[in-house]
């Protein structure tokens, strides 16, 4: 391997960075990757310069050497070729350095094109992908297509031709889909669908037969979690679900979910297909049906009885690792607002099992509310598990407060936290809230104690803990406390340096300290630090903008000079909505804020912009809201891959409510015509 990686030491690697800091170790990793025992080195190199899809300055510098290893490494050359292609693919690579990395890969187009004729089929397969990402000319692909006889390499060429020269490739890809053999047939069918070209008659059974035979598309080419998501048309899914191969039936169910995740119209068409699968002879297929229903949204309601039968077994499997089919069934009932989850969840907890469901996904319906209430009254000990699941229900759960209060002796901390989240002040919970305030610095708990008892010391104690041990997520309005916070001035003042702290938790402490000082002494001396945190962006800037919005209520002149900086934050998804509120309170018309409000609709999983739009009566956003409501594409507000449909359906409900409020308010404000 003499002469390999020439010029490696001429790069100032120590001045470049990768995922773990200095890139000074990259030369050694590249040299090890050139050897015959290079698997570990390749893995370590990948983890450093391409960590979980993120690229870095060192990645761009490494690209020419990766291209050299793709040609001359002792073994595993295809690994380097695949890596190069993925580094230039926005489906797989991201980060501030991506444009430079992609440009570096494009600079390697000539050697990557040359690898289309490599002696190793695995290298040729990878080269079709990498060369396509680097901008290969169609002629080079057609030249290789004419002679390529390896099925996997030919499949990769089919996908490449579909991207690079779709019009000219339509006939060849149609022929390949029908008669290319399993690997080529599957790839050609995907290539045609991706560019909107139709399939020749007879393609559907041929492609499903290819899947039965184990055909796949190499993962770098995929655009979703699985390659066959591209095939999720109604007809193809039908054929996959009828296959004699249970793995194909499972894949068909997965494809059905993927289609439902992408299109609002899909569940009503596709979910009924699972009816025939409920009694499938293969247990894995039956389990996959439950996973489909878990992700299907309201369309799963037609199968609620079946789901409830599975959920009834939850006490027997609640202690099992991972997400069992029974766990998923309980989640489905949660989201449907079906009360039949209550008994098995409580029974599992009574057996000593510990588990956690996402509380925000437990839907409050009259039936669920009545069942939970009855359970709390009959079995107060069940509050230990139920309290954590009802805390997000808000004012609609007020009927539960007496039963929850009665359960405090059985599950004090859990019930007290639920009452706090529900916004329900309850004297019996004060001892628990006081403990949370003084020990954990929980400001919401401290303020609840103050509301019920008039005490201010508990708030002071909570603020002291939050300032000395790290500010929590709560940033309450402290303006009415005034001189009661004077004893905290010596604790808070050192945070007001006029410079943003280096890390987010410290910046949050700076904003909380600014709230304390502003409440006691006014805004003047806190503004330099608040301005610095605002300019730093991300979530601390959101808290800074929230403080500015509060200050603008009493003394807008004191913060008016920050308007340009607030406008700068309108492009930051983490602080944009708080900046909008602050600007509105400074007198900026909502017509000027409609665009960032509209962009912010998808921030924070769609939770924050709609209440703000209603608060500001931003009628200018109505066309955007209507478009979001009427389109067939999912909104993309889910925080979990399993919750795309549910989150979008809830988002649609909230949009409808917001539109109703805006229209009613607008109608109410119209002048009367005499």
Number of strands: 4
**Could you give the order of strands across the largest sheet?**
1-2
The rough form would be described as: globular
Largest sheet: 2 strands, antiparallel
Mean pLDDT: 93
Helix segment count? 38
Query: Cα distance, first to last residue?
Result: 94 Å
What structural class is derived from the secondary structure elements? Answer: mainly alpha
Rg (CA only): 30 Å
Strand content: under 5%
InterPro entries: ARM-like, ARM-type_fold
Protein name: HEAT repeat protein
Organism: Dactylosporangium maewongense
What can you tell me about this protein's structure?
- The protein has 674 residues and is mainly alpha-helical.
- Among the domains are: 1-136, no CATH class; 470-588; 590-674, no CATH class.
- It contains 38 helices and four strands.
- It has a two-stranded antiparallel sheet with strand order 1-2.
- A hairpin with a 2-residue loop joins strand 1 and strand 2.
- The protein starts with 16 loop residues before the first strand and ends in a 5-residue tail after the last helix.
Explain briefly what this protein structure is.
This is HEAT repeat protein. The chain is mostly helical and 674 residues long. The chain has a two-stranded antiparallel ribbon with strand order 1-2.
Q: How are the secondary structure elements laid out?
A:
Blueprint (H helix, E strand, L loop, with lengths): L16 E2 L2 E2 L3 H8 L5 H11 E2 L2 E2 L1 H16 L4 H11 L10 H9 L2 H6 L6 H13 L4 H8 L5 H14 L1 H14 L2 H13 L8 H10 L21 H8 L4 H17 L3 H5 L12 H12 L9 H8 L2 H4 L7 H12 L5 H9 L15 H13 L4 H8 L10 H6 L1 H15 L7 H11 L2 H11 L3 H13 L19 H4 L11 H18 L5 H10 L1 H17 L1 H4 L3 H6 L7 H10 L4 H10 L9 H8 L5 H9 L13 H26 L5
Antiparallel strand pairs: 1-2, 3-4
Helix pairs in contact: 1-2, 3-4, 3-5, 4-7, 7-9, 8-9, 9-10, 9-11, 10-11, 11-12, 12-13, 13-14, 14-16, 16-19, 17-19, 22-24, 25-26, 25-27, 26-27, 29-30, 29-31, 30-31, 31-34, 34-35, 36-38, 37-38
